[in-house]
Amino acid sequence: MPFTPYHCGPGMAVKAAVPRHFSICVFVLTQVAIDLERLWQLLWSERAGHRFSHTLLGASLVGLVCFLAGKPLSQWLKAGWNRMARWRELDELCVPVRTSWPAAFWGAAVGAVSHVVLDSLGQRDIEPLWPWSASNPLLLGKDPWMLVMLSEICVVLGVLGLAVFLFRATMARKARDAAEDPPE
Q: Are 110 and 11 in contact (CB under 8 A)?
């Protein structure tokens, strides 16, 4: 299954649970980077399918690159977001720019492993344990309802995670505003 918002549901839930220790930017970067090989295969190969980046070994290597590149990239993206928000006079949409190395690591690690695991559950051509095994022990089988249920669980996790994250951000912003403008 190509990269879909369903891949991000578990990541958003982790972000809501441990916001300072998990980079959702690096998580998404890792998810997209893993599927770039699949996109290349679809466009240019006669033998299109899930290959190296959809193994735990390949995804770990992609995750390592995304960890190293993701920290500065996420900080650059968030700084750009903040400039745009301020230019539009939407200061309340500004986000903290700093991304810690541990947050970048966990974003990349969870992104890499969750992508391979979720895709392995429903894709027959994935060999998650390659080069040690050519089988897919995670494949759920032929029951399409299991995949539908899995997708729905991921979407619900994403919606709940986003709701918790936005609620916490709103409460923190209100607390900051109250501290800056004490009542007279």
A: yes
